[in-house]
TrEMBL record:
<dbReference type="GO" id="GO:0020037">
    <property type="term" value="F:heme binding"/>
</dbReference>
<dbReference type="InterPro" id="IPR001128">
    <property type="entry name" value="Cyt_P450"/>
</dbReference>
<dbReference type="Pfam" id="PF00067">
    <property type="entry name" value="p450"/>
</dbReference>
<keyword id="KW-0408">Iron</keyword>
<feature type="binding site" description="axial binding residue">
    <location>
        <position position="481"/>
    </location>
    <ligand>
        <name>heme</name>
    </ligand>
</feature>
<dbReference type="GO" id="GO:0016705">
    <property type="term" value="F:oxidoreductase activity, acting on paired donors, with incorporation or reduction of molecular oxygen"/>
</dbReference>
<keyword id="KW-1133">Transmembrane helix</keyword>
<keyword id="KW-0503">Monooxygenase</keyword>
<keyword id="KW-0812">Transmembrane</keyword>
<dbReference type="InterPro" id="IPR036396">
    <property type="entry name" value="Cyt_P450_sf"/>
</dbReference>
<keyword id="KW-0479">Metal-binding</keyword>
<dbReference type="GO" id="GO:0005506">
    <property type="term" value="F:iron ion binding"/>
</dbReference>
<dbReference type="InterPro" id="IPR002401">
    <property type="entry name" value="Cyt_P450_E_grp-I"/>
</dbReference>
<comment type="similarity">
    <text>Belongs to the cytochrome P450 family.</text>
</comment>
<dbReference type="InterPro" id="IPR050121">
    <property type="entry name" value="Cytochrome_P450_monoxygenase"/>
</dbReference>
<protein>
    <recommendedName>
        <fullName>Cytochrome P450</fullName>
    </recommendedName>
</protein>
<keyword id="KW-0472">Membrane</keyword>
Length: 534
């Protein structure tokens, strides 16, 4: 008996030792080796969080959220500080070379982020046989639709599925949707009462959801979709509309990525079915159940959902997964862009006045009939409106960077070795605040997109044109966003209409604060007081 207990104790000791060694290897020794391998590359940047075992860069994200800051605030600040220092010290001994690559550590997963124009340009030229899209445990949108075409390799199946949606949704010919977009917006504003405080972010999500739903299913079926019974952290079930449920699922996935066990090992966390993982899975299944039900009953035979199956040969599961991705990608991104613009216009009253003046001079008023092609053309020709849109996508970029790629083979990016298996991405956050490419990058100045304005040029030589890679909020190449035309049109027209018709104030604490961000993954929600029609 004593011998058995002794043997058992020895076994437990060995297992514990093996486990501790494994932890040490994964979270200490391996990162130390990686760091020392990359330290000699002067163009590689490793943030503070990179040195933290297990949490890695999530430590920084966690801190930001605790301080009610935008979750990637540290990346923006890194971009501002380093480029400002370089800009000020150029031509002196203190001048430092630009960083091309940032190493990010989440748990033991190494992510390589292209953060300079040079790195992004190079990455864009790497063939998809060497680096291509992949599924990641750490991507909230992908977790919502884990089998959508957006995460498959750039192959024939991806092409077929993407084209099926682009063609069926007529994504390159979207102006016919303008009257429907305007109606969805007017209906929403009509529900607001004078003096009421509005969660503008959520309200815009409902509008953009109606829009994408109408495009996908042919009619405004918003009210027909049953509510989702969404399980909260405390176990209670709250009834939510699909856009709110998708949005909460997205944020709950982000919280799951912060869980130490998930960071340590997603597969162990999955095996142990940790509460946040179980809840996210339950909520995702519930969203799919409601959508499946709705699609079976209410999607008519001419809807995009049906046509991608009947005309383009997609399976039911492919059609559903891709629909969920389109719903998520099409509602939050555009809604956050409109929200940011409405916030920024209040923060910069001169820009607001200039925009109103441009619209009025173009003959567009709050009572204009936006289904009239002449009015549509007048709005489309408003160049300042377009600069406002572009500047919003720079300063509060709705999407922070690309979806994840994986290195399928070893390759080099800006002379830095990228090992097979590394996750690769490009980030807009550094480029969008780079002092060497933008004048006063922390300020909202739409004029910088006006070719006749001095800020249009490169601030270093004050003559040459800006590298186009510096500002590509919809991505690049084959995997570029297919919703760009729709999103641009929706945002421009909705902003024009809101600016002309709505009197509003932004909550003072938000207006006076720096670095408010309303982009896709931000937890900030814009609060406005609706003061009635202008
Ligand atoms: C302001 C709004 C939007 C912005 C800034 C934006 C930005 C982006 C970015 C940066 C990517 C990743 C590109 C890459 O990884 O190379 C992307 C992908 C994608 N976006 Fe958008 N997007 C917006 C609106 C939309 C809308 C309205 C739709 C749907 C109608 C949409 C559908 C998609 C899809 C399906 C993909 C994946 C494409 C693929 O994998 O082939 N997006 N978007």
């Amino acid at each position: 008996m004593v011998q058995i207990i002794w043997k058992l104790l020895v076994l437990i000791l060995y297992v514990t030792l093996a486990f501790v060694s494994w932890l040490l290897w994964r979270f200490y020794i391996k990162p130390v080796i990686v760091r020392s391998r990359y330290r000699k590359h002067k163009n590689v940047f490793m943030g503070k969080g990179f040195y933290t075992p297990i949490l890695g860069d999530f430590l920084q994200v966690k801190k930001n959220l605790e301080n009610d800051e935008y979750l990637f605030n540290h990346l923006i600040q890194d971009g501002i500080n380093s480029s400002k220092a370089r800009f000020q010290n150029r031509g002196t001994d203190k001048y430092e070379n630009e960083k091309d690559i940032q190493l990010i550590q989440f748990g033991d997963s190494l992510r390589i982020s292209a953060i300079s124009t040079k790195a992004v340009d190079e990455l864009n030229k790497i063939p998809t046989t060497i680096c291509d899209r992949t599924q990641s445990e750490f991507h909230a949108l992908e977790r919502a639709a884990p089998k959508s075409f957006t995460i498959v390799r750039t192959n024939q199946n991806w092409k077929k599925r993407r084209e099926a949606f682009v063609r069926s949704m007529k994504l390159n010919y979207v102006s016919k949707n303008i009257p429907m977009v305007m109606k969805a917006l007017e209906d929403k504003v009509a529900t607001w009462k004078e003096g009421q405080e509005i969660n503008f972010s959520d309200e815009m999500k409902e509008v953009t959801f109606k829009v994408i739903l109408t495009i996908l299913f042919g009619a405004n079926l918003f009210d027909k979709i049953e509510k989702v019974g969404y399980e909260q952290e405390d176990g209670t079930i709250v009834q939510k509309s699909i856009p709110n449920a998708l949005n909460d699922l997205f944020h709950d996935h982000n919280s799951m990525f912060n869980h130490w066990l998930f960071l340590a090992s997603p597969s162990i966390a999955e095996f142990l079915n940790i509460p946040i993982m179980r809840r996210n899975k339950t909520n995702r299944d519930e969203i799919y159940r409601v959508l499946r039900n709705f699609l079976k009953k209410d999607a008519d035979k001419d809807s995009v959902y049906q046509r991608v199956m009947t005309e383009h040969g997609l399976t039911e599961e492919e059609a559903l997964q891709d629909t969920v991705f389109f719903l998520s990608a099409g509602l939050d991104t555009t809604a956050s862009g409109i929200t940011s613009t409405i916030y920024l216009l209040k923060k910069y009253p001169e820009t607001y006045q200039k925009l109103r003046k441009e619209l009025e001079e173009a003959g567009v008023t709050k009572d204009s009939d936006f289904s009239d092609p002449e009015v549509q053309e007048a709005v489309s020709n408003c160049s300042y409106l377009y600069y406002v849109f572009k500047e919003m996508t720079r300063i509060d970029t709705p999407v922070t960077g690309s979806l994840l790629r994986v290195a399928l083979k070893d390759f080099k990016l800006c002379e830095v070795p990228i090992p097979k298996g590394a996750l690769v991405t490009f980030s807009f956050l550094h480029n969008h605040v780079n002092y060497e490419h933008w004048y006063e990058p922390t300020k909202f100045i739409p004029e910088r997109f006006d070719p006749d304005h001095p800020y249009f040029n490169n601030p270093v030589d004050q003559k040459s044109r800006r590298n186009p890679t510096i500002h590509s909020p919809f991505g690049f190449g084959l995997r570029k966003c297919p919703g760009q035309v729709l999103a641009t049109l929706e945002t421009k027209f909705m902003v024009a209409k809101l600016v002309l018709m709505m009197d509003y104030d932004v909550a003072k604490d938000q207006l006076t604060r720096d670095h408010m961000k309303f982009s896709f993954i931000s937890h900030h929600r814009l609060r406005i007081t609706y003061k009635g029609m202008l």
